[in-house]
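> forwarded from #structure-qc
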């Protein structure tokens, strides 16, 4: 499958059309951004690591029956996916308090959230991805109650599967973001799961193994991504 026209250039990935209108190619670039794209930096190997990381995780999820976009890995940076009609809502699952939740509520980072919290954000860079809830989705037509219920159910299932995978490798899955889309009327997991869209801490040292190393200027961003990938079993080379 060949890359044809560029359909969309996001902050971390570029999306290409293919000969088949049902499929797209996602290209994982080395760009990393924060502050709504105002801070951007390139990290050698990041695109390759995230592409393989995402492919590995989505296959693990598909193995237990979660519908995913993945068709096949094409190269270090490229993956062939089903074209989804993306739902403009981000599903965030939190096992441990961190990030914007801590800032918004003034609670202590590291607090165990039992049961885990499910948050929704509108995908809208201009409005800085505001937090929303199910009621907003329905009123404004961003997602139906039926689709939201499926997205929530799948997000919790992803959490169960991935928490175990990370736990077995010596990590804590703190939180993560998922995006879903529709394919033939079915809710399907799209976009990516990688250290760019999740928080993962080392169980022993509580070191950040994810994009927080970039956000907080901790250094060794790629070293952490690579070590996380290798320890959960992603084959990088
Ligand atoms: P953000 O970082 O806030 O998610 P972005 O648009 O800059 O925004 P990128 O990951 O760089 O994010 O861009 C990838 C784009 O491709 C996203 O808009 C995402 O919703 C879209 N996308 C991901 N998977 C699919 C898919 N299978 N079918 C159609 N579009 C997809
Ligand atoms: P969150 O704490 O809501 O925001 P911030 O990253 O500003 O602290 O993020 C929770 C998790 O979801 C975290 O792992 C990052 C991820 N996430 C994204 O990748 N993109 C997003 O637009 C949002 C809202 C969250």
């Amino acid at each position: 499958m060949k890359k044809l026209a560029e359909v969309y250039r996001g902050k971390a990935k570029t999306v290409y059309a293919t000969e088949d209108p049902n499929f797209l190619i996602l290209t994982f670039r080395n760009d990393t951004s924060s502050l709504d794209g105002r801070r951007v930096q390139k990290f050698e190997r990041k695109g390759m690591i995230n592409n393989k990381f995402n492919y590995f995780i989505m296959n693990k999820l598909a193995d237990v029956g979660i519908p995913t976009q993945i068709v096949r890995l094409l190269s270090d940076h490229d993956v062939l996916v089903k074209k989804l009609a993306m739902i403009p809502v981000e599903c965030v699952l939190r096992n441990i308090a961190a990030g914007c939740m801590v800032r918004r509520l003034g609670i202590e980072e590291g607090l165990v959230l039992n049961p885990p919290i499910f948050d929704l954000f509108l995908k809208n860079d201009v409005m800085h991805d505001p937090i929303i809830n199910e009621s907003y989705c329905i009123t404004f037509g961003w997602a139906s109650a039926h689709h939201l219920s499926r997205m929530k159910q799948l997000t919790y299932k992803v959490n169960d599967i991935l928490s175990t995978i990370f736990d077995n490798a010596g990590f804590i899955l703190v939180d993560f973001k998922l995006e879903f889309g529709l394919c033939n009327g079915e809710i399907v997991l799209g976009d990516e799961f990688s250290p760019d869209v999740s928080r993962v801490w080392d169980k022993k040292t509580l070191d950040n193994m994810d994009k927080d190393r970039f956000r907080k200027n901790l250094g060794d961003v790629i070293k952490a991504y690579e070590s996380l990938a290798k320890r959960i079993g992603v084959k990088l080379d």
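QC bot note: The chain has two domains: 6-82, 85-220. The first helix runs from residue 46 to 63.
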